[in-house]
């Protein structure tokens, strides 16, 4: 755990559905874990529930059950993401994986307040907290961006993505906040602060793909990790171990 009492919280907000927000959060979490950090990822994307795909076994309780049952501690809903043994840190996710009836209850105002409380708990226990947030259209998404210290808007590198970024900026302004960073995925956008190229390792079981070496995808994820931690980027050395070594310098204690 770092020296400060609580971790900064970053909300990865999808500018549009299917933007790649969940995968981006998993990759950035793994990059930070490569530097020895402990990372929590909490799921606000109740409709897609994609974060659940990155962990094995039964998910019970899931995040929505924690939101409707305030007697359960955050630790009961955390699941470990499998990382290579050489990675000194960890990534623990709290995914949503629930029937429609409970999803509906978890979107209520009182559940959103509970979500903010869980985010605070995670910030007290982890070095970094990442939030997987869908386009802003429900109470849990509003709670997530209001609880975050910074917001990274994620959009596909397409005309659709460009239009969605503008709508996302407007929606964030509507709820009294704004973006700190814009990330385009699967290509470049002029309006993006960081562009992440596509990767051939698209399958869920291939993630995280950023730990495999010093390619364009790994370097881009490193830049996102640098931006969300507000740390100066350490350039990888040629043949020097790729992301694992450079992010270790980036977020090293």
Automatic annotation (TrEMBL):
Report domain AAA positions.
Answer: 10-171
List, alphabetically, the InterPro entries matched: AAA_dom, DNA_Partitioning_ATPase, P-loop_NTPase
Organism superkingdom: Archaea
Q: Which Pfam families match?
A: AAA_31
The protein's name: AAA domain-containing protein
Q: Which organism is it from?
A: Halobellus limi
């Amino acid at each position: 755990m770092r020296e400060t009492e609580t971790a900064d919280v970053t909300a990865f907000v999808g500018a549009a559905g299917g933007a790649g927000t969940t995968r981006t959060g998993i990759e950035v979490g793994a990059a930070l874990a490569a530097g020895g950090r402990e990372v929590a990822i909490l799921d606000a994307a109740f409709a897609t529930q994609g974060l659940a795909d990155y962990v094995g076994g039964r998910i019970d309780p899931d995040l929505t059950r924690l939101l409707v049952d305030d007697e359960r501690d955050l630790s009961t809903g955390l699941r470990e993401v499998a990382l290579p043994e050489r990675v000194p840190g960890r990534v623990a996710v709290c995914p949503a994986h629930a029937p429609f009836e409970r999803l509906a209850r978890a979107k209520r105002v009182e559940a959103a307040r509970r979500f903010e409380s869980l985010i605070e708990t995670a910030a007290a226990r982890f070095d970094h907290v990442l939030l997987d947030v869908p386009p802003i259209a429900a109470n849990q998404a509003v709670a997530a961006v209001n609880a975050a210290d910074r917001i990274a808007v994620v959009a596909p590198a397409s005309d659709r993505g460009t239009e969605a970024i503008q709508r996302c900026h407007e929606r964030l302004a509507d709820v009294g906040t704004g973006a700190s960073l814009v990330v385009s995925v699967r290509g470049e956008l002029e309006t993006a602060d960081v562009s992440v190229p596509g990767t051939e390792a698209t399958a869920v079981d291939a993630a995280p793909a950023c730990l495999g070496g010093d390619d364009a995808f790994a370097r881009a994820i490193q830049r996102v990790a640098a931006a969300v931690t507000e740390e100066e980027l350490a350039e990888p050395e040629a043949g020097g171990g790729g992301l694992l070594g450079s992010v270790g310098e980036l977020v090293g204690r």
